[in-house]
Amino acid sequence: QEFTEFRKERGNMLLSRKNQLLLEFSFWNEPVPREGPNIYELRSYQLRPGTMIEWGNYWARAIRFRQDNNEAVGGFFSQIGQLYMVHHLWAYKDLQTREDIRNAAWHKPGWDELVYYTVPLIQEMESRIMIPLKISPLQ
């Protein structure tokens, strides 16, 4: 009864809702608990239809440029829901660390080439900064 009432009240506050069933890229690290405190960046990419395999092939190489600081948490793609969606989850100590790590990638030979080839595959992209709850294993 209480849960039914909660769902009804919650429904009055929602403007929209999306669900996706995601699969993990095989070349990405599996998400594991982290010591914090950390902030997380969820980068979401809407790819052009028909480009998922190409994206995956490029990122199988690109991920090695972004693992030095253990910031790569997980990489996922949609299987059900909005298709050709890719989500990358990154962990950083703070926003300054995020900026430093992202800038350092540009100094690594080959990173700029991989970005050059993946950008045309993207229709839309979004970045969200998230702070984990105290109960989250991703601190």
UniProtKB/TrEMBL annotation:
GO terms for biological process: mitophagy. The lineage of its organism: Eukaryota, Metazoa, Chordata, Craniata, Vertebrata. GO terms for cellular component: mitochondrion. Pfam families: NIPSNAP. This is NIPS2 protein. Belongs to the NipSnap family. Residues 40-137 form the NIPSNAP domain. It comes from the Eukaryota.
